[in-house]
Amino acid sequence: MPGLSAFERVPVEVLSYIFLIVRDEPAYDPVALPNLELVCRSWAVTLALYPSFWCHLSISIGWRPIGFWLSYTKAHLRRARSDQLLVIKFATSPIRRWWLEEGGFEIYQKLVQTLTGEHGEVAQRWKRLQCELFGGFESVVQDTLFIFPTPNLEWLELEEFVSPRAFTMLPSTPSLRHLRLTNCIHPIPQGISLGDIKSLKSLDTKSKRVPPLLPLLPRATTLSTLKLWSLLEWQFVPRTTLPALRELCLAGPILPDAFRHFDAPNLEVLRFRTDEDVATPIFNCLTFPFQNICHLDLTCRWRNKLGQKSPEPRRKHFQSVKLLKAFTNISTMEIHNYDETCELCSTLVTQANLQTDAAVQLICHSKMEYRSIRVAPLMYRIFQS
After folding, report:
1. SUPFAM superfamilies of this UniProt entry (predicted)?
2. 139, 172, 358, 370: which sits with the fewest CB atoms below 10 Å from its CB?
């Protein structure tokens, strides 16, 4: 065990690297950084001089007494200083009854108020906010956490938020770039309402109901990545044109005419995470130009029927494959098949007759493995011969 003098001589650059590793560790111990201050004086001085070490808050209510998290939050906010932007992870345990602790609910309210500030001064410093809200008490979050403008918020992830009534969440989010909503329920049909999504670059929603924010999509003119997953059938609202969209991922049941009012003229990556019977009629309704798409993902259980020997099933299901002829610029195609992976790849390439001089990468997903097969131009021509 080296003496304290050895710890004292560690360069500041190395110390900073160590502290950042400790801070960003997924299984972060909330007392790890304070414990490092006890090693020696130089370590304590380094932690005091660099407030950026304290601007990441990872709060997991239920794993420690609720009072600890209030003290933890206040200490981090004080040491991060008022000019530092904040990265906050706020989670509540779905199984531990933390609200039964003495003063649990009142302390929870104070904690939420501390994260925003009395007049929203802390909320203005949010850069990234990740909330996993299990166990109820959404009214406290709705009435306190989401009512202030967040001019610096760039990344928002919200999971299991059940809104008790209609409201506009985060009235001003001019810097918001990435939004992810998982199993969030809102009482109004159009779903969760944000003050502003004009600056949004990425939207990822997973819902047991109709995907939220669908009515607001026509305003998301800068959106480049869109992922929609739902257990209920849905469709885009009229006049949904996304000129900046580059990647579209769809999963779950979708109405056949879902794309009748949708246009994405610059789409390059198209992913279908749904059944073939759902995907096929959707292909017929697509109105944006297929020739721009270079990555097609059909990991939607396009079954072994493509490789069956019977002419009738082959003729029926090759209607889906014939639709691939419209995609003339494919460089990467992903499919999902339990067996005969390579044979299915060959069948798809042959039947679709993709017109491209570049190599085509066929990524095949099977039940037990993930294989990426690089198809060189020579091999590609053999498939077509």
Report:
1. F-box domain, RNI-like
2. 370
Q: How far apart are CA 157 and CA 155, in angstroms?
A: 7
Would the CA dihedral through 328, 317, 273, 288 be positive or negative? positive
The residues spanned by each domain of the chain are: 54-199
Angle ∠(287,292,294) on CA atoms, nearest 5: 120
pLDDT in tens, 220-256: 889 999 998 887 778 888 888 899 999 998 887 777 7
CB 193: neighbour CB atoms within 10 A? Answer: 19
CA distance 54 to 283: 50
Of residues 203 and 381, which shows the higher confidence score? 203
Which secondary structure element, helix H or strand E, spans residue 272, and what is its range? strand 269-273
Tokens of 132: 């996993």
- Block residue for tokens 């099977």: 366
- Provide the pLDDT for residue 315: 42
3-class SS at 16? helix
Q: Return the amino acid letter for 181.
A: L
pLDDT of residue 127: 93
pLDDT at 362: 61
| Distance separating alpha carbons of residues 246 and 266, to the nearest angstrom | 6
The SS3 call for residue 218 is helix
Written as six digits, the tokens of 145 are 């956490």
Measure the CA–CA gap between 111 and 105, rounded to whole angstroms: 10
DSSP-assigned beta bridge partners for residue 206: 182, 229
How many other C-beta atoms are found inside a 10 Å radius of the C-beta of residue 213? Answer: 23
C-alpha separations of 249 from 239, 272, 276 in Å:
19, 6, 15
Classify the phi-psi angles of 110: left when phi > 0, otherwise alpha if psi is within -120 to 50, otherwise beta: alpha
pLDDT value at position 270?
87
What is each CA distance from 57 to 70, 97, 216, in whole angstroms? 11, 22, 31
Instruction: Write out the two tokens for 200.
Output: 């949004």
Phi and psi at 294, nearest 5°, equal -110, -10
